[in-house]
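Need residues for this backbone.
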């Protein structure tokens, strides 16, 4: 499948950082980080293919499709080398990009993600459900995993974000995750990496991020308390300063 031009929003000034969203979300999932990041970086937020305002090609997709889209985006913006921050599916995209195109990635932050997520059949089943019933069929269950039991914010807008995801886009990305296994590529990654886990994340628990941090040379691990899968939204007071501190290191 060929790369596509994804929808992107560019703000701020300074070195470029690309923010890659999770399955079922849009570039707005990073809203809690933007005001601070814009003071340090040119912030490139985009909607993964099949999500938000990006085109929705027919699936299935592959992780290389998603990485190709980022390369095309960087080329379109005239950015030769960028930091990349990805959560969940966005983290998978970031890992593949850093392993495959190391010249394009300066520093990397991986949040609440995994080098592989088994069993593959569970993702195939979710893709089939969404294709038949729409993304709204999984929205409530997905958002239950995004936030810890103690989260006091309004989950309604997050459920609406998932429910609005085009069914083919959501399903196509499920199929990319189903066939994903980056575990043998991690040791080849040269970008200085920070892995961030939510202590209460049932989808990608801290052990998943520990595996990544142990495999990528010199990577560091941060476990965020009172956070589940969307740690950046639940605990921005911890996550945002950690992002900035890591990305600003020379």
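Answer:
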């Amino acid at each position: 499948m060929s790369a596509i031009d994804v929808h992107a929003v560019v703000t701020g000034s300074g070195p470029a950082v690309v923010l890659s969203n999770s399955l079922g979300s849009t570039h707005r999932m990073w809203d809690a980080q933007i005001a601070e990041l814009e003071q340090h970086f040119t912030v490139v937020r985009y909607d993964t293919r099949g999500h938000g305002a990006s085109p929705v090609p027919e699936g299935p997709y592959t992780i290389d499709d998603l990485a190709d889209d980022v390369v095309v985006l960087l080329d379109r913006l005239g950015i030769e080398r960028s930091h990349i921050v990805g959560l969940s599916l966005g983290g998978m995209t970031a890992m593949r990009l850093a392993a495959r195109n190391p010249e394009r990635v300066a520093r990397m932050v991986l949040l609440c993600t995994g080098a592989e997520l088994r069993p593959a059949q569970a993702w195939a089943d979710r893709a089939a459900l969404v294709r038949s019933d729409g993304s709204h069929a999984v929205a409530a269950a997905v958002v239950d995993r995004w936030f810890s039991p103690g989260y006091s914010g309004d989950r309604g807008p997050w459920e609406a974000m998932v429910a609005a995801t085009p069914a083919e886009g959501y399903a196509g990305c499920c199929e990319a995750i189903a066939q994903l296994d980056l575990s043998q590529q991690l040791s080849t990654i040269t970008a200085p990496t920070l892995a961030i886990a939510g202590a209460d994340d049932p989808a990608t628990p801290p052990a998943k991020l520990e595996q990544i941090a142990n495999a990528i040379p010199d990577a560091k691990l941060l476990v965020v308390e009172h956070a589940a899968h969307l740690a950046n939204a639940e605990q921005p007071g911890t996550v945002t300063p950690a992002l900035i501190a890591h990305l600003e290191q020379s």
